[in-house]
Amino acid sequence: xxxxxxxxxxxxxxxxxxxxxxxxxxxxxxxxxxxxxxxxxxxxxxxxxxxxxxxxxxxxxxxxxxxxxxxxxxxxxxxxxxxxxxxxxxxxxxxxxxxxxxxxx
Length: 105
Ligand code: HEC
Prior knowledge:
Layout: H1 2-19, H2 28-39, H3 59-68, H4 81-93
Helix pairs in contact: 2-4, 3-4
The structure holds heme C.
Heme C is lined by residues 38-39, 41-43, 48-50, 52, 56, 65, 71-73, 75, 87.
């Protein structure tokens, strides 16, 4: 009886922790690939968009940026919803205040 209760509590904790992680359904590995392929062209030092890496924002700022979906120009018009979810997840996972900050050079 006691054991069941403990299991239930552990399940609840695990669930709460997972759902605290940004958007659901984003694939960070795909996001990294898409970011390098589609964003880096404009977002390296000296390019038209200026340098952007996961470290450019905090986790909350990345989520807000994608939520607002107001990237300048029409650079994002070619991305599907899933692509943006994936990129959002990648940037979030490696944001400046994340567990694994990463520049993605
Ligand atoms: C066609 C070129 C181009 C592409 C592709 C592009 N951007 Fe941008 N991006 C820009 C320009 C231009 C700006 C505006 C820079 C400025 O105002 O100094 C910008 C601004 C930004 C900013 C800063 C906005 C802010 O207020 O913080 C972020 C973050 C950003 N882009 C992320 C991305 C991401 C992520 C991708 C890929 C999904 C991407 N961009 C693809 C050209 C591009």
